[in-house]
């Protein structure tokens, strides 16, 4: 993803496509889109990834998390014909050095999260999938306990604090 | 800026990250996340879970033409979507709902003003301007009401709410928010059902006429 962002590397983008496009298609079909529309959405999402690559910040998000958000945005924009409200972006300090330990930490936390999900009972796992496919309201999510968040929250928060120190204009 | 003490619930942030909050509530939650580092971290954690769900999705082969079409478009010119940034007390998502304009206040009486950003079957989202010491009429709720303070502060039966604080009210709460002394209070308020105002006059007459 960094090669796509910084070097506009098409081979890297092709590899990303080969990995994510079929998963995106499966994900989109599961959330109710007919197969032909699913391919259109996959194409839109992949094009958005290419065009918005400069926004990707590996200190704060895994590639899969970033793509997940783009895919949900696209699905919602199509379903509701209005733009989904998103928070203001945190801007990266231009030329700020990548913090390898922060990026690695996030990767490790995401790996643990993946393992935690794989250990769930099938019914629990299905509940999680439904929640993140947008099939549960917040009331229904409230009724479900134990979304496996604890593992990665602290790490993402640390990254955020680091960023906030760098972004002096954020907290006027 | 004083610390934010009232936040959306984790379940609400999860539903927001999954794109499953009705539009008026999504505007308010997006605005809160824009102001609140703690909720941004939680929101991003939910995105990470969504990413794992995506990553682990059953792969369905895509047609070869999709790849060709996509790569043919990579160099095509495109108009980037407008990015709305914070302006004064209004965070980016409010500016987006405004399409970049300034608020157009309409007087509601007693110095209270409002500007309705959107209203449809999903509910409404509006800005409220409440002068210091002034109350929003006593009311109960037909559904959910989210109120985010953008300037000043207000207090009601449940506590005090300053800049960035989010009050969540539902059917169970009947309250009278009063703007604190000092600066006028500006709030972003979303509801998914009509508020039930208890007009002052009918209430006074209630014991006599049993309305
Ligand atoms: Zn918060
Ligand atoms: Zn209320």
From TrEMBL, chain A:
Any Gene Ontology biological process: DNA-templated transcription initiation
DNA-binding found in the keyword field: yes
Keyword tags: DNA-binding, Sigma factor, Transcription, Transcription regulation
Entries under Pfam families matching the protein: Sigma70_r2, Sigma70_r4_2
Domain RNA polymerase sigma-70 region, chain residue ranges per copy: 16-84
Chain ranges of the RNA polymerase sigma factor 70 region 4 type domain: 112-163
Keyword Transcription regulation belongs to the record: yes
GO molecular function term, any single one: sigma factor activity
The family this protein is said to belong to: Belongs to the sigma-70 factor family. ECF subfamily.
Cross-referenced PANTHER family: RNA POLYMERASE ECF-TYPE SIGMA FACTO (PTHR43133), RNA POLYMERASE SIGMA FACTOR SIGZ (PTHR43133:SF62)
Identification of the protein by name: RNA polymerase sigma factor
Organism: Sedimentitalea nanhaiensis
UniProt lineage: Bacteria, Pseudomonadati, Pseudomonadota, Alphaproteobacteria, Rhodobacterales
From TrEMBL, chain B:
Pfam families recorded: Cupin_7
InterPro entries: Anti-sigma_ChrR, Anti_sigma_zinc_sf, ChrR-like_cupin_dom, RmlC-like_jellyroll, RmlC_Cupin_sf
Domain ChrR-like cupin: 103-190
SUPFAM superfamilies named in the record: RmlC-like cupins
Domain of life, per lineage: Bacteria
Gene3D superfamilies: Anti-sigma factor, zinc-finger domain (1.10.10.1320), Jelly Rolls (2.60.120.10)
Protein name, UniProt field: Anti-ECFsigma factor, ChrR
Source organism of this protein record: Sedimentitalea nanhaiensis
Biological classification of the source: Bacteria, Pseudomonadati, Pseudomonadota, Alphaproteobacteria, Rhodobacterales
